[in-house]
Design a protein that fits this description.
Blueprint: H1 4-11, H2 16-27, H3 31-45, H4 49-56, H5 70-78, H6 84-100, H7 108-111
């Protein structure tokens, strides 16, 4: 018997390779993410006011830099446990694909 995740992929005709590619695009670090990480590190290393002001500014939620990978998809297909952040990354990638197809986004509970 197929689990909910694999059934969801087959019902919506989503290729797992597409999920990996979309997640890599969504979760990949961008230059602004790298700047905020550098500012945070430099703030911890020294007490420069310029770096502190840049690090204190609250940017949008940063990307994780850790995309969904084929190993994670194999674990899901096998029905093994997956961490919460990995589930969230997977749901973000699936919702991106669904919105491109003009379908409604899904919730974590609908897939797992």
């Amino acid at each position: 018997m197929a689990n909910k995740f694999s059934q969801f992929l087959t019902d919506n005709k989503i290729d797992p390779r597409r999920v990996v590619a979309v997640s890599k695009h969504i979760e990949g670090l961008r230059p602004e993410d790298r700047r905020t990480r550098l500012a945070r590190r430099s703030k911890a290393a020294s007490d420069k006011p310029a770096a502190a002001a840049e690090a204190d500014a609250k940017p949008a939620k940063p990307r994780s830099g850790r995309p969904v990978n084929p190993v994670l998809l194999r674990r899901l297909e096998a029905g093994k446990k997956v961490s919460g952040p990995a589930k969230q990354r997977l749901v973000r990638a699936l919702n991106h694909i669904l919105t491109q197809r003009k379908k409604e986004p899904v919730d974590v509970r609908a897939i797992f």
